[in-house]
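Provenance and format

Records in this collection were gathered into a single text stream. Each protein contributes a sequence line and a token line. The two records reproduced below are adjacent in the stream.
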Amino acid sequence: MDRLSTLLSHFGVNAGTFHSGTFCGVSVHDGEPTGHLHLLQAGALLLKPGNEREVRLDEPSLIFFPRPFAHRMSADDAMATQVVCATLTFDGGAGNALAAALPDYLVLKLTDIPQLGSTVEWLFQEAFDSHCGRFAVMDRLFELLVILLLRHLISSREQQPGMIAGLADPRLSRALTLMHEQPQKPWSVAELAMAANLSRASFAEQFRRVVGQTPADYLLSWRVSLAQKRLREGRPIALIAAEVGYESPSALARAFRRKTGLSPREWKAGA
């Protein structure tokens, strides 16, 4: 069972490189409909995320905003700043299950994530050379970096309650991956507990503690997130209902309203 590939098959990521090279001045990202990934290759950089205090980065670092989040970056000539930046868009929109499970932002020293080393080096080489097709290559490398970063987060097992923490748990990840792979099945707590090799009571307690929801609430959230992605794609609601485990469009509409406060039609109009 590949807990990450299943997620990415539903909610893949698309990157768009928009800067590579020397950075001097102020860059403000506010109100944009995308996430961002910035790589500090050399020099120093001042970063102000949202309303938080400004921090100075003096080592090669990765700055990851999986969802739209206001932030400002600045540098002057003396800092000799070299950065590579890309926008990030997850399939299904910024509110999809994967993007929503991630923190607002992460700032990590590149030395702390050696798993990304060769990919980062390749990306920097493309960024600062003049090979033809380099922006297309850089976009794909940014997407690969996100996948490797997700792998790192899942393996670190130091997460706040949520999907990523559940996937980092060797037992719960089996149950979560089953729900991700087969959302149309009417999963019972007993079946999921068996997959996790836990008693029903232990499974339910551990799931709520680690994931922050009951198994039934999580399955509802996952199904609705998949339905939202399919609505964005223009799929007929009758087909969506069957694909995500509801016997009729009206049954999906009731679950959708319970989760979002809106009918599928109302949500699609707003989205």
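Adjacent record:
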Amino acid sequence: MSDRPKPETDGKKVSTRQRIVETTQELLAQRPPGLIINKDIADAAKVRQSLIYYYFGSQADLMREAMLQLTEAYIARRKAGVDRSETFPRLPISDHELWWRAAANFSADSGHAYSKLNWEYPVVQFEYNEILAHHPETEPNAVKRHILREICFNFGWVVYKDTVAVGLNMDAEELRAVERDILA
């Protein structure tokens, strides 16, 4: 099952704009954003490159829209499907693979690609806030450790730790403590 949001088409063909977004999502799930050029997007979407600028103004705006749609779909599924009676729910890749892979590719450069988009780590913040809202007695640092462990379990610690730490507003001391805990 794809985690891509389905456009409101009423049985009609997907719009060109949405096709460009979906193609960009697929490409972001395959490689880092810095390795994607507009020609790649246009060729895969079977459109002229000029349409990227027509619909989005820039490649950064297109990538922001692609991640926004993936993120909204991810959060909607998490809201609908997570048992929040569990203090530390898993963050599985299944049912969200497109989002996870795209997010991982954005994170692979210690968050520089996210910074270019002015991205505020909405999924990490959503998970953090949901756990604390449903379990206010839980120590915030325990929640951060859980989220980091889950992401590290899914994708590996070294490449993503700095990016996730930024998303969780962790300082260097907190990150070292979590790193010791995870690697112990």
